[in-house]
Design brief:
Layout (H helix, E strand, L loop, with lengths): L4 E4 L5 H12 L9 H13 L4 E7 L5 E12 L4 E11 L8 H15 L5 E3 L6 H9 L30
Parallel strand pairs: 4-5
Antiparallel strand pairs: 1-2, 2-3, 3-4
Helix pairs in contact: 1-2
């Protein structure tokens, strides 16, 4: 495969990025792949860098191996800018080679260099592998519980409430 590099995504990367998200969402409990929605969301971020950043890892052939999406928001609790790590996904052919950890470290270094105060992410409760990955990289599970209300009029399948094991 050759050397890899991590760099900002470009508009030309949209089709490959959407493919990565479609793969990710096909394995998540709450989301369903929708090519048009993924393209629209990615485009909004890429065209409005004040909203967030998307970084990609490229292989020697310039194909995208993985991506991380960081959305910018403000925390009143922290009194400043914070990031929401929305998507960290590695192409299925390149998983379990340390690329996810490289992407995460790059994102966290970016956050530190830009003086963001916190990075928050959501991961599936049932995906113990993902939870272990993030814990091993310095994240901790919060006492906060995410709640959602869909305003688009669409109704996705709502998963059953899962009671955490104590």
């Amino acid at each position: 495969m050759g050397p890899t590099r991590i760099e900002p995504a470009t508009i030309e990367d949209l089709p490959q990025l959407a493919e990565l998200l479609e793969d990710l969402f096909s394995h998540e409990a709450e989301f369903r792949p929708d090519h048009e929605k993924q393209m629209r969301g990615l485009r909004l971020i890429l065209e409005q860098p004040n909203r967030g950043r998307i970084f990609v890892m490229r292989g020697g052939d310039h194909r995208i191996i993985g991506m991380v999406n960081l959305l910018i928001t403000i925390s009143t609790a922290e009194g400043g800018f914070v990031l929401l790590l929305e998507d960290l996904v590695i192409h299925q052919d390149h998983r379990h080679h340390g690329f996810g950890e490289q992407m995460l470290k790059y994102a966290l270094n970016y956050a530190r260099q830009k003086n963001f105060l916190r990075v928050t992410l959501l991961t599936d409760r049932i995906d113990e592998g993902a939870r272990r990955f993030f814990r091993n990289n310095g994240f901790f599970e919060s006492e906060m519980i995410p709640m959602r209300m869909l305003l688009s009029g669409e109704r996705s399948s709502v998963p059953p409430v899962i009671t955490p094991r104590l």
